[in-house]
Amino acid sequence: MEKEVLLMNNKGLLRAIAIFILGLVLGYFICLITVTKPSVNIDNLTTTTTNDTATSNVSTEQKVTNTELEQTEPITNDTMVETVEEEIESEDIVENIKEPVKPIVNGMFSWHKFKEKYLPILEKYNIDQVYQCYDSQIREGDFEAINESLNLLEGYDVWLLTGDPSWDADDMLKKVNTAKESGGFAGVVFDVEPENYDESYLENVKLVCEQADIPIMFCVSYRADVNIIKEVISVSDGLLVMNYDVGNEYSNIKEWIPVSEQYGVPLITVYELQPSDHDIGLHSYHTYDGDIDAAISNFEEQFDGEDNIGIAYHYIKYVNTD
């Protein structure tokens, strides 16, 4: 009996020891699992972070958009009508803006010695032709002075400006030869305005144009007989109309325009800038009194749509630079 009790006690002790050992083993494995860290997938982590950030940004943008929408006035039919009207008005304004008429020639007369201080005027008003008088230098044979002046005007088409109402063809041809000998001239402008534009005048013009082998242009009065002027246009290289009649410049020469277009010859309307002087018959209705900008405005208004019209100013000494 005592042996059985002792055996049972031994079995219970063994069972307790076994349970204790099992507990130690289980505890060991639990510690291993807890202490060991799992591997982390960097790619997945980055993707997850990026997605979270994008989601956050979208959420923020949505909030901003919603706020803007809340602040925007609701679009009504009246608002749409006003918008359409504004667009139509804007289109009308654009369509009504016209490019100013561009003259085929921008000319400037200069009867006296050309001075360096005049160069800014030529540049400001886009002058491309200068009609310069050298009568005194030619009489004195001072061709060095002419060359110096031409050098000063380098880059511009310089025409020899000369003439007298009494001149005939021989007188004019002498000046043609002088221009050719001097060199450097684009051509000759003859300011030969007789009392009567008759057949004798026309014969002289035709003879000069036939014999001259350089370009020739003539100054004529706007009062000249239209039939004579048509003949001059047909044989010359250009016509400078001394159009001294403020406000009527276009009506004075409108019959000449188709003829100049037919022959491809520039028709140049000249604006007077000298101050009015009753002693020489120059009245306020003849001149723009130095106001070159007013002359340009008149040209742009009256000759809008014309393609074969040039403009010139008489003359540089009287251009108002204030």
Describe the structure.
The protein is an alpha/beta fold and 322 residues long. It folds into two domains: 2-96, no CATH class; 106-318, TIM Barrel (Alpha-Beta Barrel), CATH 3.20.20.220. Helix content is 52%, strand content 13%. It is built from twelve helices and eight strands. The chain has helices at residues 2-35, 42-71, 77-96, 119-124, 135-140, 143-152, 169-182, 199-211, 226-235, 249-253, 257-263, 292-302; strands spanning 106-110, 129-133, 157-162, 187-190, 216-221, 239-242, 267-272, 309-314. Strands 1-2-3-4-5-6-7-8 form an eight-stranded parallel β-barrel. Helix 7 packs parallel to helix 8 and helix 8 packs parallel to helix 9. The longest helix is centred in the N-terminal third of the chain and has 34 residues, at 2-35. The radius of gyration is 48 Å and the shape is rod-shaped. Residues 1-8, 35-73 and 90-98 have low confidence and may be disordered.
CATH architecture of the largest domain: Alpha-Beta Barrel
Distance between the termini: 146 Å
- In the CATH scheme, the class of the largest domain would be Alpha Beta
Spatial order of strands in the largest sheet: 1-2-3-4-5-6-7-8
| Helical residue percent band | 40-55%
Subunit organisation of the chains:
single chain
